[in-house]
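Following up on my earlier thread - several people asked me to post the actual chain instead of describing it. Fair enough. Here it is, all 159 residues.
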Amino acid sequence: MKAIYPGSFDPITNGHIDIINRASEFFDEILVAGLVNSKKQYLFSTEERRQLIEQSFKDNKKVKVDTFEGLLVDYMKEHNYKAIIKGLRTVTDYGYEAQMALTNKNLYKEAETFFIHSEEKYSFLSSSMVKEIYSNGGRLSSYIPEHVEKALLLKVCKR
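Reply from S.P.:
Thanks for posting it. Predicted structure:
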């Protein structure tokens, strides 16, 4: 069975990577689907986010990468996906993600959401947190892969 793991991934973190790698033990294929939202301001472009994700999984043949715009369920129907992977860090995440799972199920009856709880060491980690830590001079080596940290440094230096 194949599954989709949607998100903004701006940038991808070790928490995302951990969830995806763990999910790939149970699914034949995981499609990491980067959301494109024209109303949202991203640090990294769609193509940059895609490349960072691809580089993060260059050794995991079960992981594919794509980007999409619009409703997740429309993308799923078009590409024949029925399983959604969502990572949970906190009870607050569960409340939001449970609501999204029910909405997706209402819009696409075949959609099933599978929740994977984050490892404790990543339970606080988010892309927003990474950007905040970085902008205040904090160390990121335990939060993002080295290639993402280099890309972040280049991106911020260009500004």
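The two ends are 43 Å apart (CA to CA). That should answer part of your original question.
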